[in-house]
Design brief:
33% of the residues lie in helices and 28% in strands. By secondary structure, the chain is α/β, with parallel strands linked by helices. The two termini are 31 Å apart.
């Protein structure tokens, strides 16, 4: 296992930001680390990268203890924090030279700088200062610094945050390509990115792990596995407070006339909706039933 966590805990005063969590990340996989704001994702990542010490519990990266062997861990881990701290007054190569010096790359410094610049697609922006780059290219610089020492494990905290659709697609493809020969643990709030990139998902809520499985297993084997989504398009805007509610877990408004119902009893709810439609003279133009999406499962597990 590239990452092994056992009963890891971090408290700040009386508040437990991370509360006795345990999970593993197999070598050579991309794992999504999901959770709402304040769930403990960033705190966990900071402990794994030795930025802050745990209060109790243990964790290891490729067999190296994050407390007893912190310096060795830093040599094999690349970290892109959510804030992505960069020196805006420096040119890209200047910044990467500083990072390479910190990692004491010696004679490999020049070749590694050239390699990460090519890998992250920074060539055409190489003559710009970092402060003049777009958000997408700043994220590329952050990824370049995380990879410059050729780490075995990458820990990426919200690497696609704030990017436009084109930039997001570029960073997603870059992470997928990097993940072909590295282990990656990444956090994100964009469920589509998890579905596109990740083989495994770990969900944390209020400092506790609430799900840990393959992407498909999260939906087929979690507590939300029996939830279904019924999408209904009505002829007229429905009055939500008048809808039959016996079997409705949640309602999501997709448009004025289209609602998404989450239910554990799809057949019964469909019958109720059809009956309600006839009684209120509000025809159903379209109705579909599907197993819950990752987003629906996430909402269920973290609500």
């Amino acid at each position: 296992m590239s990452i092994h966590i056992q009963s890891l805990t971090k408290t700040f005063g009386e508040q437990a930001a991370v509360n006795h969590i345990s999970f593993e990340v197999p070598s050579g996989t991309i794992v999504g680390f999901l959770g709402p704001n304040g769930a403990g994702k960033s705190t966990t990542m900071k402990m794994l990268t030795t930025y802050i010490p745990p209060t109790s519990g243990t964790a290891s990266i490729c067999g190296l203890d994050i407390i007893k062997q912190a310096m060795e861990v830093r040599k094999i881990v690349g970290y892109l924090p959510e804030s992505n701290p960069l020196y805006y007054d420096l040119y890209i190569k200047e910044y990467l030279e500083i990072v390479a010096g910190i990692h004491q790359l010696g004679t490999q410094k020049r070749s590694r700088i050239d390699a990460v610049i090519e890998m992250t697609g920074l060539q055409k922006e190489i003559r710009k200062k970092i402060g003049n780059l777009s958000k997408g290219y700043k994220q590329r610089v952050g990824l370049a610094q995380a990879m410059i020492h050729d780490p075995k494990v990458l820990i990426l905290d919200e690497p696609t945050s704030g990017l436009d659709p084109n930039q997001l697609a570029d960073i997603r493809n870059l992470i997928i390509n990097i993940g072909r020969d590295k282990t990656i643990l990444l956090s994100t709030h964009i469920m589509q990115e998890v579905e596109a990139m990740c083989e495994r998902v770990v969900i944390i809520n209020n400092g506790h792990i609430v799900a840990d499985d393959s992407l498909t297993g999260i939906q087929s084997g979690s507590a939300a596995s029996d939830l279904h989504v019924i999408t209904v398009e009505f002829a007229k805007e429905p009055q939500r407070d008048a809808l039959p509610g016996n079997h409705i877990e949640d309602i999501k408004v997709l448009s004025v006339r289209t609602l998404e119902f989450h239910t554990r009893h799809p057949q019964e709810l469909r019958k109720q909706l059809m009956q309600w439609s006839m009684e209120t003279d509000n025809d159903i133009l379209n109705i579909t039933t599907n197993q819950t999406s990752l987003e629906s499962t996430f909402r269920h597990l973290t609500s």
